[in-house]
Automatic annotation (TrEMBL):
The keyword Nucleotide-binding applies. Residues 1-240 form the ABC transporter domain. InterPro entries: AAA+_ATPase, ABC_transporter-like_ATP-bd, Metal_Ion_Import_ABC, P-loop_NTPase. It comes from Catellatospora bangladeshensis. Keywords: ATP-binding, Nucleotide-binding, Transport. The lineage of its organism: Bacteria, Bacillati, Actinomycetota, Actinomycetes, Micromonosporales. GO terms for molecular function: ATP binding; ATP hydrolysis activity. This is ABC transporter. Residues 230-240 have a biased composition (Basic and acidic residues). The keyword Ribonucleoprotein does not apply.
Amino acid sequence: MSTSPVLVIRHGAVAYDRPVLRDVNLTVTSGEVVAVLGANGSGKSTMIRAALGLVPLAEGEVELFGTPLRRFRERRRIGYVPQRLGAGGGVPATVGEVVGSGRLARRGFPGRRTAEDRQAVAGALAAVGLTDRANDPVASLSGGQQQRTLIARALAGQPDLLVLDEPTAGVDAASQEAFADALRDFVARGGTVLLVAHELGPLQPVITRAVVVHDGVIAHDGPVPHPSGHHAEPGHDHVHPHAPQDPPSIWGRE
Ligand SMILES: Nc1ncnc2c1ncn2[C@@H]1O[C@H](COP(=O)(O)OP(=O)(O)OP(=O)(O)O)[C@@H](O)[C@H]1O
Ligand SMILES: [Mg+2]
């Protein structure tokens, strides 16, 4: 069995009009659920986008499943859910269609939908609790349900690595719980997860490691830091939905 890490970033640097990430070193191994935490604008999205080759590295290198990024061809092994759903575009796709599109990379074009495709889509819908909405237009769903649809699309592709950028931002508590269960299930089947979050909430018990990005560098890599502020108080059970403008309080002020 291969012991190659799932993802490695070595001395990664990214610059847009100015440097945004510098000397980022990150290794994610099979079965981990790694949370990337940090303030707005610290470089979290840039880091995971660089890891997937969506933004170029100015310095350093990335390996996916032991293969340098520039030679990596097995994109189907990765499921990616970006930070925000793009503007609707007016296409009245149903939930089932969107989730089914997660199977496209696994089919030859114009490949026929197989029983395996149908099973994977049904399993992904069930994992996020949207089975009964499969025939509804995505536009008729709440923001949290739309986010779950995108997560189901990524799950339907049966990736080995799931990369999610703020999958629970602005998502109601029930959706967060459903998502935490789906992640548990995904990892139990051998998956690896890298996700960006501001507040872990119900995800906290699923997370095996936290990476805190501060001002373009990794400031912490290890156990999940203790929450601070009112979230640290006993009895605060994180069942309420957080407003998007809530300050990131998970990695405290010491
Ligand atoms: N395409 C881009 N062009 C220029 N600058 C960018 C671009 N994308 C991000 N930036 C800048 O890079 C920095 C890091 O952005 P990034 O989106 O990675 O942060 P983040 O930690 O994900 O923030 P948030 O929590 O708000 O999602 C910010 O200063 C941002 O303005
Ligand atoms: Mg971001």
